[in-house]
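Technical note accompanying the year-one report. For the benefit of new consortium partners, we illustrate the data format agreed upon in the data management plan: each record pairs a sequence with a structure-token string. No post-processing was applied to the example shown here.
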Amino acid sequence: MVLAAGLGTRMRPLTDDRPKALVEVGGRALIDHVLDRLADAGVERAVVNVHWFADRLERHLAARGRGPAVVISDERAELLETGGGLKKAAPLLGPDPVFVANIDSVWTDHASPGNSALNQLARLWNPSIMDAALLLARREGSIGFEGDGDVFLDDDGRLTFRGDAPSAPFAYMGVHICRPDYVTDGPDGPFSLGGLWRRSAAAGRLYGCVLEGDWMHVGDPRARDEAEARLAAGG
């Protein structure tokens, strides 16, 4: 599942005439960065939600020259946020666990072939003890992330949120695994996955692993320019 329906307001003026998913970094649209990563990890089919400049995004996806095959989840009528978007797309996703990916994350991967960050996340996933497994980045050295970190990572992979702590070493970098029915009990209409994650963390059922590479959160034009410079320098 690729979450591509957002308005991209922080990316303006680059999103005045296109969806955020089609903003280019290093000569490729953001959504192509994500879909190519998923294809390299063995994903053969992706559901992509659309809203802002939906027709233009659909044309771009139809013209892609490689997998994964794309199915559209249409949110033209109402923008549903992360949780609501996943809930609407659930009938298209089926019952099996899925990657859920934002389109504003670009990263370099220093792992060996076959041991990519997405492959490591897939190997971590264990539905008997987990509700969701999140891919994390080290806060220090990341581009486009200006917060104080999101979570702490225990030795066994369990996550706890920062809470009242002044900072935490890891940030969620925009990709996780869960079952599509994780959001079944969520409200109708728009809602965020954040509340569900906090509930899972309190129950000891939120896990994660850390990217071995450089994470670029491409949320605004300045971060886009910084990401392009990092990629041009070879990561």
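Partners are asked to follow this layout when depositing records. The two ends are 26 Å apart (CA to CA).
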